[in-house]
């Protein structure tokens, strides 16, 4: 077959795509379980989800939930940490634990034939962790060292400072998941055990599974391992006050740096609002793809950066919009000018051609998000986290295609606010001071990162 590369291939048919349906049932103790039968390969992917994350950390104990996630698999049931790892490895299983601001997820992927054995190991970790003092002290030292290393990385400084200054110190979303060495130094193993007892419970959990297994057998295995678990829990609570952002620039000195990390943005509406698809298309045009306005401007037109992007970032109970890039120090103010110019420009409207291209890009890539069991489970976790309707995934492409040009243009006016944005610059203060001689980007405030979270 001869390929004619001078002509672009034509799209054949309208894209039709359906997500595998899910079953939901409760275990004997009430744990809500969601099962997606995917029989093509003998693989099972499971995520055990706990409705607690770093936003549940008590005041002056930031990083406690993350420290628990590091300690919980350092020995459980009849196994120490090395034995647990060896048991998973012998069965070719992939085990992981992940924590963010909102939830904690313990994940397992394994061949179907080894699912029963590895499920018992996972149950040991969740139900009977050792949480002993020696393991606690070792993990606390490791994470404290890692945080100190991160605090020397400009991108980490920019990200953590941006969210802290955006949300304000009264908001639980303002703090890094890993916490701070000063807080961690005051914690003891009883803090970790108490946090576990407060939040690890059947009443605070859900299970999502995708893979090749009979539903009734799955239900029996889950009940055998988790169905008798009974533990009272403390309902997660956190501080999430509403604030208004002001047009300000915060400069954090990174001596001798030849680049500047830039973060600029503001709060926006939450993930489960009606305008999600409109914002998705808007951002795709503005800064959500390689051919977006912001990237073409800063990278292709001016050569200020290797890449620049924008994003609507969603937590369960809050959200924000931001632009992110890294530029050479001497081009910082020029890059900022172009960013704000693009933000103002998008408020004036997008073209029909841009919208058509964005829709095509999103919808044609969409099926690839559901190719594997892990893809299915990951997407379904988002459904639970944001309380999305049951037909969300199957109606996704239709909802994208139903967005009009007027919808996107109105959404830009409603959700992009360059005059109410905060901007974080992490770089060489002496050089940046020379470029920030006017207030055209907002009031300029100079900070030291070490003093920021005090």
Description:
The protein is α+β, with helices and mostly antiparallel strands and 454 residues long. The protein folds into two domains: 22-226, Metalloenzyme, LuxS/M16 peptidase-like (Cytochrome Bc1 Complex, Chain A, domain 1, 2-Layer Sandwich), CATH 3.30.830.10; 248-452, Cytochrome Bc1 Complex, Chain A, domain 1. The chain has helices spanning 64-71, 81-90, 115-127, 133-150, 154-167, 181-184, 189-199, 215-226, 276-286, 293-301, 332-347, 352-365, 373-385, 396-401, 405-415, 429-435, 449-452; strands at 22-26, 32-37, 43-50, 94-99, 104-111, 205-211, 248-253, 259-267, 308-314, 319-328, 422-427, 443-447. The protein has a six-stranded mixed β-sheet, sandwiched between helices. It has a six-stranded mixed β-sheet with strand order 9-10-8-11-7-12, sandwiched between helices. It starts with 21 loop residues before the first strand and ends with a helix.
CATH architecture level-2 label of the largest domain: 2-Layer Sandwich
Rg, nearest Å: 24 Å
Order of helices and strands: EEEHHEEHHHHHEHEEHHEEHHHHHEHEH
CATH top level of the largest domain is Alpha Beta
Total count of domains = 2
- The helical percent reads 25-40%
CATH topology title of the largest domain: Cytochrome Bc1 Complex, Chain A, domain 1
How is the main sheet built? 6 strands, mixed
CATH homologous superfamily heading of the largest domain? Metalloenzyme, LuxS/M16 peptidase-like
Task: Tell me how many strands there are.
Answer: 12
């Amino acid at each position: 077959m001869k390929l004619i590369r001078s002509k672009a291939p034509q799209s054949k048919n309208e894209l039709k795509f359906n997500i595998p349906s899910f079953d939901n049932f409760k275990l004997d103790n009430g744990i809500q379980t969601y099962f997606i039968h995917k029989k093509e390969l003998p693989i099972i992917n499971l995520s055990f989800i706990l409705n607690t994350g770093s936003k549940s950390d008590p005041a002056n104990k930031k990083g406690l939930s993350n420290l628990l996630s590091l300690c919980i698999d350092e020995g459980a049931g009849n196994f120490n940490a090395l034995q647990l790892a060896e048991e998973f490895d012998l069965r070719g299983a992939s085990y992981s634990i992940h924590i963010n601001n909102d939830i904690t997820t313990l994940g397992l992927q394994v061949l179907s034939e080894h699912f029963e054995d590895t499920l018992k190991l996972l149950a040991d970790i969740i139900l009977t962790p050792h949480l002993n003092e020696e393991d606690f002290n070792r993990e606390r030292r490791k994470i404290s060292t890692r945080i100190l290393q991160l605090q020397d990385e400009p991108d980490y400084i920019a990200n953590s400072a941006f969210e802290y200054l955006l949300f304000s110190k009264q908001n639980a979303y303002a703090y890094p998941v890993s916490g701070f060495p000063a807080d961690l130094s005051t914690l003891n193993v009883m803090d970790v055990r108490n946090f576990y007892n407060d939040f690890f419970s059947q009443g605070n959990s859900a299970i999502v599974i995708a893979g090749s297994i009979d539903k009734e057998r799955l239900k029996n295995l889950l009940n055998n391992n988790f169905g008798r678990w009974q533990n009272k829990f403390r309902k997660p609570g956190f501080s999430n006050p509403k604030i208004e952002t002001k047009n300000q620039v915060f400069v954090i000195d990174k001596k001798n740096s030849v680049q500047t990390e830039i973060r600029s943005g503001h709060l926006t509406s939450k993930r489960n609002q009606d305008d999600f698809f409109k914002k998705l298309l808007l951002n795709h045009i503005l800064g959500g793809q390689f051919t977006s306005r912001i990237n073409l401007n800063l990278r292709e037109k001016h050569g200020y950066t290797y890449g620049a992007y924008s994003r609507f970032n969603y937590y369960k109970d809050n959200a924000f919009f931001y632009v992110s890039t890294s530029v050479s120090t001497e081009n910082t103010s020029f890059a900022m000018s172009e960013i704000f110019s693009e933000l103002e420009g998008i408020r004036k409207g997008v073209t029909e051609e841009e919208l058509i291209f964005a829709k095509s890009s999103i919808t044609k890539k969409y099926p690839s998000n559901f190719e594997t069991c892990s893809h299915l489970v990951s997407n379904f976790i988002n459904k639970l986290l944001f309380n999305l309707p049951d037909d969300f995934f199957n109606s996704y492409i239709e909802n994208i295609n139903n967005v009009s040009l007027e919808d996107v243009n109105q959404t830009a006016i409603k959700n992009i606010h360059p005059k109410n944005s905060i901007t974080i610059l992490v770089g060489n203060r002496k050089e940046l001071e020379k470029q920030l001689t006017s207030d055209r980007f907002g009031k300029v405030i100079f900070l030291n990162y070490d003093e920021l979270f005090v």
